[in-house]
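BUG: 3D viewer hangs when loading the predicted structure for this chain

Environment: internal workstation, default settings.
Expected: structure renders.
Actual: progress bar stalls at 90%.

Input used:
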Amino acid sequence: MALTGLKIKLDRYEYSRFEDSRRVVRARIVPEPATGLDETVTVKLVRKGGGPELDSREVHFSGEAKRGQVVSFDLEDCTDDEGYPVALRGDYQVLAQAVGAEASADLRISLVTVDELKNGYCHGLTFYASETLTAKRQPRVVTGVQVLGASADTRPGAQILEYSPADESSPATLQRGGGAEVELDESMDEETLPDERGAYIDVRIDHFELPETAAQEALIIEMKVMGDEEIRQEIDRATEEVEEQWLKVFLEPYRVATEPFFSEPEEGEWFDRRVDPAHYYKDAFNLNAKAWHIQLPLSQLLNVWQLKGFIGNQVALEVIQGKYATNRVQGTVDVMPYDSEYSVLYQFHMLFRLWGDRKYIANFWRYKGRSGLERTTGDVIRAVAYTAALPILSVAGQAYRAGFASESISKDGVSKSVSYTSSATYGIYSATIDEFKKWLKENRKSMRRKYRGIAMTVL
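Structure tokens produced before the viewer hung:
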């Protein structure tokens, strides 16, 4: 029987090749129909938006396969022809393809995953805001309704959210927890729904998405929790901060290129980052060695594959046969042509004199190559994680019993007194925050020297 459809179920959304428990992508491929099969499905791990195919597998379904088959991709094994990793941070997809059927599932690869930051660096804290209540998840059956928040006296727990559509005699209504029915007015996008105790929730309503028939579901109210997406944004900001401000070095070995190479890659070629051209300086050419010593605007320059000189948008110089010798830390490249290329250099310098004595040409050198840390070490991962954890721990500490220094309760001769460390200066995570800040301060300069070398200024 021919396949009519495919489903993909991943074991998680976020992965990292630096975390052993989250290094392997496991995808369950389920065919439709699941009986009477004799079909082969190709499963690929690819980068979204174009780029390399990281890995691929073939799965054969024969007979009955109601539970499908599991395909695994180890991110450590995803390398290019030179042995460099291609499972770099970004958005990816698992694609399943067969004759007449196709499916995809999105995933993300990170330096530090949300789960690792929560459990490894934030010590498993719950990220609750003790004074703010909201829905555990937004309504799915009663579509078109989004919970914005709940009153302070709302009891956490589950209550029924019920929708009744409009008929000839009455408008559409919403009701929650046995409270009064609220008639919906299409000119109003927000409503307040009380429960039987008088507590309430605020909701936003999309009247075009409301169910066509009566619907109800359990709506769970609990203390607001910082979501994974918010934490992921902090990790992304921390990664950019360490990469662009701290080290000014790509944290992973990226394929880089200037224009026009970046926008017009050759067949089978791809690039991870677009970089700036280098300027031409007359004194960079050594007449005796007949070679150029060029400073590219990159540190940790792993290799250069091609380098051309442009004046405007026209190629002015190209060394076809020669050698590129790079200084990894300083980001310099020595262009050493072979004997057969000396005539090209002579012609370039003679024609260049027609322009007068030019000592500088902006954006002359265009190139493609590889730049970044060949191996992302533990201190870099820790710097990203600590930088991301600082604002999260600060917000979590402020949200816990915000504004309370102590709390005392007394009833029928029984009393209870609790003191909190939450204040304007000290919070429940202050010790951890101070430790992270201390480590970052102590290691920032040494990491810069390690990965970028000693900064020198010529006077």
